[in-house]
Amino acid sequence: MITKTVPNVEAACEGVEDNMTLMLGGFGLCGIPENAISQLVKLNVKDVTCISNNAGVDDFGLGLLLQKKQIKKMISSYVGENAEFERQMLSGELEVELIPQGTLAQRCRAAQSGIPAFYTPAGYGTEVGEGKESREFDGKMHLLEHAFEADFAFVKAWKGDTAGNLIFKGTARNFNPNMCGAANITVAEVEELVPAGELDPNDIHIPGIFVQRIFKGERYEKRIEQRTVRAK
Amino acid sequence: MALSKEQIAQRIAKEVKDGYYVNLGIGIPTLVANFVRDDIEVEFQSENGILGMGPFPFEGEEDADLINAGKQTITALPGASFFDSATSFSMIRGQHVDLTILGAMEVAQNGNIANWKIPGKMVKGMGGAMDLVASAERIIVAMMHTNRAGESKLLKECSLPLTGVECVTKIVTNLAVLEIKDNAFHLMERAPGVSVDEIKEATDGDLVINGDIPEMVL
Questions:
Q1: Which residues of B touch A123 (CB under 8 A)?
Q2: Strand order in the sheet with B50-54
Q3: Domain contains B214
Q4: Most C-beta atoms within 10 A of its C-beta, which of B23, B49, B63, B106?
Q5: Model confidence pLDDT, tens digit, residues A168-190
Q6: Are the Cβ atoms of B73 and A229 closer than 8 angstroms?
Q7: What ipTM was assigned to the predicted interfaces of this complex?
Q8: For chain B, what is the domain count?
Q9: Cα–Cα dist B99/B143, whole Å
Q10: Cβ separation of B82 and A171 shorter than 8 Å?
Q11: B216 part of a folded domain
């Protein structure tokens, strides 16, 4: 058995440098790699490009990297809910590339699967399609979109084992599985880390082959962005 | 009387058929779930990764790992499933989702839609809207007929940056139900007590009126 465990978040983030491109899983604040983000803040790496569906809120998630001006460019589908983001974007300090959410997911998936590019109808005829190759299939126009290239992917799973196998929970799954194996090094943090053999192979969402480093994350805050309830 | 947002949702709910998988956008579309007949089977998809989305949880039962695309805490109904984002958009792009209901800032008479960006204002992003409108078999736009300045949102051509081209076929507003075909808006139903003239007045694009236009039944 091949072991993927590293002792802690410091070891998990070894090799992250300025100017790198990083993928980060999560949708809003749901399923974000909280420990890796804290460590990136600590390492104070600068001018990184982040591929992430959202950009966190002012004081949590990727908002923490924005506060320290560590991000040069964000590649996202939706970046509301973040005042510091807005300030940096409007002042030109932060470069932002907005792309359709399904295209974002599929560009991760393509990178994971060794597919250099694919056609999708999303964004055809809009500014997203400007300068991109287009082609008609079955009477409908499509855009050519390319696989992402990234140095690190930071993902968060619910359970994992020492072989790097991962199981996600609820809608915290989102982009996390698609980013595994989509970068040169995939770092998975999990709430519960068990010895290989304890997870039923039938239950594995992402096989360990897509993961290079795995560690047990500490003190998950799991902040809720919009707490909505109904009366009993 | 023009419809309230709830009534727009109530009218759209009548378009939801037995066996449909439905994606609801943020705003008025979210309200549609409250008005779907309970004698039909419908499943709601949220593009962040759930099919079989249920209502908000009871207080104290919120789960940070269970949210909708609006980042609100939700519940999962019996038969629900969770999946990753690429799978979610396979459902959408692959036309497995039967109906998409979303809001808009502008709709043009050729079916173009703009709902993600206002030049000069903070751009938040398109999220999944471009994927949804580019692929959905059936799209219903839920919106007010005019904007806050009183200007028509049903136009000859969109002035705002587009979300998708030639994709909208049906619109339900506070004044009317309209269909788009042959490069024009076709008036199908009026809101109770709203005259055809009022709808004409509020519509900037070409409006086709064939015979007597019935009042909507909510």
A1: 130, 134
A2: B75-82, B50-54, B43-46, B21-24, B99-102, B139-142, B170-172, B176-181, B184-190, B207-208
A3: no
A4: B49
A5: 999 999 999 999 999 999 999 99
A6: yes
A7: 0.97
A8: 1
A9: 16
A10: yes
A11: no
**Tokens 């939801």, residue located:** B16
Residue B217, SS3 per DSSP: coil
- Residue B162, domain extent: 5-208
Average pLDDT over chain B, rounded to whole? Answer: 96
AA letter at A13: C
Domains of chain A with bracketed CATH: 9-100+149-216 (3.40.1080.10)
CA distance A93 to A95: 7
Q: What is the CATH number of the domain that holds B151?
A: 3.40.1080.10
Model confidence pLDDT, tens digit, residues B94-149: 999 999 999 999 999 999 999 999 988 888 999 999 999 999 999 999 999 999 99
Residue B213 falls inside a structural domain: no
* Cα separation, A59 vs A35, whole angstroms: 15
- pLDDT for the residue A90: 85
Q: What is the pTM of this model?
A: 0.96
Residues 66-85 on A with a CB inside 8 Å of B are 76-81
Distance of alpha carbon A60 from alpha carbon A96, whole angstroms: 19
pLDDT of residue A19: 98
**For residue B24, is it within any domain?**
yes
Candidates A105, A222, A229; nearest CB to B86: A105
Does residue A81 carry a pLDDT above 80?
A: no
B33: left (phi over 0), alpha (psi -120 to 50) or beta: alpha
Q: How confident is the model at residue B1 (pLDDT cuts 50, 70, 90)?
A: confident
CB A204 within 8 A of CB A210: no
**pLDDT category of residue A118 using cuts at 50, 70 and 90:** very high
Does A80 score more than 90 pLDDT? no
Q: Do β-strands A166-167 and A152-161 pair in parallel, antiparallel, or remain unpaired?
A: antiparallel
Q: Which B residues in the span 79-108 are in contact with A, Cβ-Cβ below 8 Å?
A: 82-86, 88-89, 92-93
**Does A219 contact chain B (CB < 8 Å)?**
no
Nearest 5°: the CA angle A120, A124, A129 is: 100
